[in-house]
Structures are given as C-alpha cells and as structure tokens.
Design brief:
Layout: E1 2-5, H1 11-21, H2 28-34, E2 40-46, E3 56-65, E4 68-76, H3 85-99, E5 104-109, H4 114-122, E6 126-136, E7 142-151
Parallel strand pairs: 4-5
Antiparallel strand pairs: 1-2, 2-3, 3-4, 5-7, 6-7
C-alpha cells in the first residue's frame, strides 16, 4: 500500500468511493476544488488486492489552518474495508500533520459509525463535544456528531 497526493485523474474513482460511503456525498466538483486550496491535503492509497479491480483503495482529505488539522473525509472501497487501509491512511495524515508541527487534530463522526469511532479511539482521539442534529438524513431524521480531538504536540 502506498499513500500519495490525490490528482485530478483520481477524482472519478474518489467520487465513486464517496458515493458508496456516505449518504450525502461530496460532488466531483467539491473534490476538484479541494485540490486547489493551499491549506487542503488530499491523499489516495494505492492497493493491489484480488477483492478490487480499482488501484485506488481509499482516500483522505484534511485541512491545516491556524496550527490545527481538521480531518474532513476518510473512506475506503467497501470490498476492501477492515483490512487496515483506513488505518494506514490515517497514520500517514497524522504523521504529516505532526511533521508540520500541527498541535492538534479534530474531526466529526457519527456515533453510529462504530468502525470509524473505534479507529479514531485506537489512535488516541477523545470525544470533546457533541454537535446535536449535525447530520441530516434523507428520512428527515438527524444524527448528532461527536467531535473528537488528539494532541499532536511533540513531547
């Protein structure tokens, strides 16, 4: 597995993974716009597995602003989930933020997304707050967002 910066030529595959992963996916244009923001960091992970014909196994997007990292997106092709791909992506993103001397990383996650919550806790993220009704559903329902944080300061 190799993590590399996302390129414009990756957007179609990334948008497909996005649609397969989220109820309210970002558009292709949203990903294209991310590629041109100076504070945006967008990565894909190249994989070679018999479970997927895609070479891109997943992606991660984060912003670095005012000494903080905000993880916006992390997603993996459904056929290759639970094989350490998201963990590898997250590790690379946190290492980059650490190398940039970023002091802390933040993210929002649905409490119902147990796999993601467990991944973030494994890395040392803690829940610091809850945003009520943050995620809207097509059914008219909503779900809270847990705000999680990890300290990245050098010891």
């Amino acid at each position: 597995m190799m993590v590399r910066p996302m390129r414009e030529s990756d957007i179609e595959t990334v948008a497909r993974i996005e649609r397969d992963s989220f109820a309210h996916p970002w558009s292709r244009v949203a990903f294209l716009n991310e590629l041109h923001k100076p504070y945006a960091h967008n990565y894909i992970i190249d994989i070679n597995t018999p479970q997927s014909s895609d070479k891109i196994g997943g992606y991660a997007c984060f912003h670095t602003i005012a000494g903080e990292m905000h993880l916006l997106k992390i997603a993996v092709i459904p056929a290759v989930r639970r094989q350490g791909i998201a963990e590898h992506l997250l590790r690379q993103c946190l290492q980059e933020a650490y190398d940039m001397r970023i002091s802390a990383a933040f993210l929002e996650v649905r409490p119902s997304n147990r796999a993601a919550v467990n991944l973030y806790k494994k890395f040392g993220f803690d829940v610091i707050a809850v945003r009520p009704n943050y995620y809207s559903e097509n059914s008219g329902q909503s779900e809270d967002a847990m705000i999680m944080r990890i300290n990245l300061k050098r010891r």
